[in-house]
Design goal:
The chain is mainly beta and about 160 residues long. The protein contains two helices and nine strands; from the N terminus they run αββββββββαβ.
C-alpha cells in the first residue's frame, strides 16, 4: 500500500507450518519509489479470526510521506449502559502507530497501539472506570498517529 492508500499488491494464501518455525508465504516485487514509500501490512488469521498483524516499511517512519488518515468512528454501547463501549475506527489513508485515549479518563482498553489500513477497520473495547454517556466518549476520544507527529507542508 502507498501512503495515499493505493494498493500496490495484495494476496491471500492458505498455509500450514510448524510452531516455532518460519516460511516464505508471499513475495512482493517492489523497486524505486514504490519500495521507499511502500507500507506492507500482513494479517494472520486462524479459523477466520485475526490473531496477529505485522507492519513493515523500507524507509524510516520519518521518511514516509504520510497523508491525513481521515478517521471515521462508530461508537456502540455494550452490555451495561455506560460501562463498556465498542469503538470501530476506519480510515481513508493508512494510519501508522495509532494511539487512542479518553481525555481525563483512566479507562481500560482492549488495544491502544496499532495500525489501521483502508478497508480494514479496527474494533476497540473501552471500559471507563465509571459510567459515561456515548456522547462523552465521543467528545473525549483522542486518536493520534505517526502523521500527527510531523509538520506537513501546505499542498
Amino acid at each position: 500500500t502507498t501512503p495515499d492508500g493505493n494498493i500496490i499488491a495484495s494476496g491471500r494464501e492458505q498455509v500450514s507450518f510448524a510452531g516455532n518455525s518460519n516460511t516464505d508465504v508471499y513475495t512482493i516485487g517492489l523497486a524505486g519509489d514504490d519500495q521507499e514509500q511502500a507500507i506492507i501490512m500482513a494479517w494472520l488469521e486462524c479459523g477466520g479470526q485475526k490473531v496477529s498483524t505485522n507492519l513493515a516499511h523500507f524507509s524510516r517512519p520519518k521518511n514516509l510521506i504520510l497523508r491525513e488518515p481521515e478517521y471515521s468512528m462508530e461508537i456502540r454501547g455494550e452490555d451495561d449502559p455506560g460501562d463498556c463501549f465498542t469503538i470501530r475506527i476506519t480510515v481513508k489513508k493508512p494510519a501508522l502507530y495509532v494511539f487512542t485515549d479518553l481525555r481525563n479518563v483512566d479507562a481500560n482498553w482492549s488495544d491502544r497501539y496499532f495500525h489501521i489500513m483502508p478497508g480494514r477497520p479496527v474494533d476497540l473495547v473501552v471500559r471507563p472506570p465509571k459510567p459515561m454517556t456515548m456522547e462523552s466518549v465521543r467528545e473525549q476520544l483522542v486518536i493520534k498517529s505517526l502523521y500527527d507527529t510531523f509538520e506537513h507542508p501546505a499542498r
